[in-house]
User: Fold this.
Amino acid sequence: MVVGCPASKDAVVDLHFAGAAVHSCHALFTNFNNLHVGKLFIVIDESGLWDGNNQLVAQLKAKITEPIVVWEKKGVDAINTRNFANYILTTNEAHPVKVDPNDRRFFVLRPSDHRLGNTACFRALAAQMSAEGSAAHFYKYLESYEGDTRIIGDKNHLPMTQAKRELLEHALAPETKFVVDLLENEQKMLTVAGNWEPVEDGAFYPSKALYATYCAWWDSNGMSSPYKPSKKSKDEFQKQFLKITGLESDKRGDTRGATWTSTEGVVKKLRKDGVYYK
Assistant:
C-alpha cells in the first residue's frame, strides 16, 4: 500500500462526497476529471502504476503536490481550482511504484495478511465504513490523532518504513546495486593476483579487473529486469563507478584503475546521495 502525501492541504468540504475510487490509469489521468475535483481522498486500486512506467508515476507525483488543478468537464470550459486530494494506492504488486532517493511524497506500508480470506470480517468492515456518519467520525479521529497520541507528524518528512526501503533499493541503478553488493560482501572483487576477495581499504583494482567483476555480477544477478537496462561498456562503467563511490582514477605503472581508499568513505558518499539505507 502506497500513500501519496501532499505537503499541506486544508479544506472544508461535504464529507459525504469527499472520496472517490479509480480502477484504471485512464480514469486517473483522463482530461475529463470531474470525478476527482474537490475530493480529499482518492483510492487507486490496481490501476497499472507498475514501477517501470515512469511517465505515469511522474504524473501522479504532480497530482500529489500541485496546489492548483485544471477542472475539465465535457462541454464546459476548463477552470482552475484548488487541489485538496490525497491518494492511496492499493495493490498486490510487490513493486507498485518507482520510488526515488530522497522521495518526499510516498509513505509505504505492507498491511498484515492475517485476515486474508476472512470475507465475513471484510463485509462487516465495509458496512461500517458506508454507514451514515462514518466518514465524519473518521475525519474527526484524524483531526484529533496528534493530540490524543502525542505523535506529531511532519508532513514534509514522511517516516521511513521497511516496505519503502525495499522499493528504494529495488529502484536503484544497476551500477549502484553493484557497489552496494561490494560493500555487503555479496559480491567479491577480482584482485590484481587473480583471486576473488572482499574489497579492502587501500587496495588497487585495475580497470580490467573492475569491469570483469561488474560483468560477473551482472550475469549472476539477472540484470535484464525490472527495467531491462543495458550493461555499460568498460569506459562507461569506469566513469559511473567512480561517480557512485566518490573514488578517484589511479594508475600503477602502466595500469589504470582505482584505489579503494576507504569503505567508510564510500558508505558516507552513498548515504549522502540517498542510495544506501543501512
